[in-house]
Design brief:
With about 100 residues, this protein is an all-alpha fold. The protein has 2 domains: about 60 residues, no CATH class; about 30 residues. It is built from 6 helices and no strands. Helix 1 runs antiparallel to helix 2 and helix 1 runs parallel beside helix 3. The longest helix has 22 residues. It is elongated. InterPro entries: TPR-like_helical_dom_sf (IPR011990), TPR_rpt (IPR019734). Keywords: TPR repeat.
Length: about 100
Amino acid sequence: MSRKLLSLGYIYEMIGKHEEALAFFEQVLEKDSKTLSTALIKEAHLGIKANEMALRFKKDKSLITKNLDMQVMQEKIAIFKENPKNLTGWFSQWN
């Protein structure tokens, strides 16, 4: 049941319904926290944190690029435009 609630929270977060997503994450912690594994509890807490960040970024879009070095980003974009196959390698580092 907890996994389904977390999945619903992610889906609502992706479609922009932040209040509903937050309710699902909190419901996981309220109802099932005694029988949940540590990983699921941590995942619910991360979902709540991500929800808070999404709401902040929605209000002030400049927060997204505030700490981003745009010079480096433009260089990477230029590299990927020259050879799109480099993009696959770059994403594989994150998985």
